[in-house]
Amino acid sequence: MKFDLLYELQMPKPHDERSEWRCYHEAFEQIELADRLGYDTVWEVEHHFLTEFAHSSAPEVFLAAVSQRTKHIRIGHGVTLLPYKFNHPIRVAERVAALDIVSDGRVEFGTGRSSQFEQAGFEIDTAESREMWQESLEMIPRMWTESPFEYSGRYVKIPSRDIVPKPVQKPHPPIWAAATSPQTWELAGRNGIGILGLTIFVSVKQLEERVRAYRAALKEARPVGKFVNDKVGAFTIVHVAETREQAIANGGADAAINYLLYAFRVLGGFADPSGKGMQREYADLEIKSTPYRDLISKEYPLIAKMQKGECTFDELDAEDMVIVGDVDHVIRKVERYQQAGLDHFIALTQADRIPHAAVMKSIELFGKHVMPRFR
């Protein structure tokens, strides 16, 4: 199992005129440490309009800087938003190839389509976002391997053109998809691409079920790329300290709850009765006797408690949805993720109000004392 870091570039208020500068440069320092300690990949999200939760709207710039500050760690878009109004597929192909060149072939290409809240800011119809994602997903590997390239699709039409540069990795970087709903896990398998999942809202038992469904779908894959990427990754909030009490005092438990609350209210759209956001996935499954809200609550049992404001850190901890504690506690938790079938364990360490020094210590403790147990 490989060990990765994920960055949202979180920045809770209050802010001052140097807050974003500190957030970015502290993240650089953390990633440089991870590179020295032998972490495998650093992933960065693409989000828009999410003040405090994610100041990461230009990951191509951030990751290019990371590539020049590190030597070994792989550079992951986790993820690039593919609906064409976010990012035209030509520009995605060009930027990712350029990043692969400047990083000496270290790019991992994750893809996604974001939340309804962000889509609305770019005038994207949520109902069509999956089809937009699929169209770009099929085009981009061809842009990296065909010269000239041309395409006439539902959303994008491209006349015959040479699209340059080409990536260093041949035939192209590994391709991944972010997944929140079970349907997306299976769709990624059918497309022959890796999966980037999460454990917020999802127990390790549910994660194991989704891994099995993904592996089954892979058997019938029609790969969009020139090869199948059959790897599974999932992220959770991780904070390691000398003692469990210190990990909680550093803000690890608060970071987990606050992430869940934000994802629930804004990204997931669970608090929105209109059926937007992640609820859209379940509206398609609705049957007359089972409203979509009940389908969501069945898949995500904590949702009902979130709606009542009753979810606690201890409940998240009991389901291994988050990992906050001392080294021995963390090792026991990571073992469960390994048993669930993960190829990449992805840690979100820069979260909420955890101080930079505590994040650095957490990355160090995990790298020196947890990772070697699984190598």
The parts where pLDDT drops under 50 for at least 5 residues are 270-292
Shape: globular
Task: Output the structural class.
Answer: alpha/beta
- Tally of helical segments: 15
Please outline the helices and strands:
Blueprint lengths: L1 E6 L11 H19 L3 E4 L14 H11 L4 E8 L7 H14 L4 E6 L3 H6 L4 H20 L3 E4 L4 E5 L13 E4 L3 H10 L2 E5 L5 H15 L13 E9 L3 H6 L2 H16 L11 H5 L8 H8 L2 H7 L4 H6 L4 E3 L1 H13 L4 E5 L7 H15 L5
Helix pairs in contact: 1-2, 1-15, 2-3, 3-5, 6-7, 14-15
Describe this structure in words.
With 375 residues, the chain is of the alpha/beta class. The protein has helices spanning 19-37, 59-69, 89-102, 116-121, 126-145, 182-191, 204-218, 244-249, 252-267, 279-283, 292-299, 302-308, 313-318, 327-339, 356-370; strands spanning 2-7, 41-44, 74-81, 107-112, 149-152, 157-161, 175-178, 194-198, 232-240, 323-325, 344-348. Strand 5 (149-152) and strand 6 form a beta hairpin. The model is unreliable at 270-292 (pLDDT under 50).
What brief labels describe this structure?
single chain; 375 residues; alpha/beta; 8-stranded parallel beta barrel; two-stranded antiparallel sheet; 15 helices; 11 strands; 46% helix
Task: Summarize the entry for a quick read.
The protein is 46% helix and 16% strand. With 375 residues, it is of the alpha/beta class.
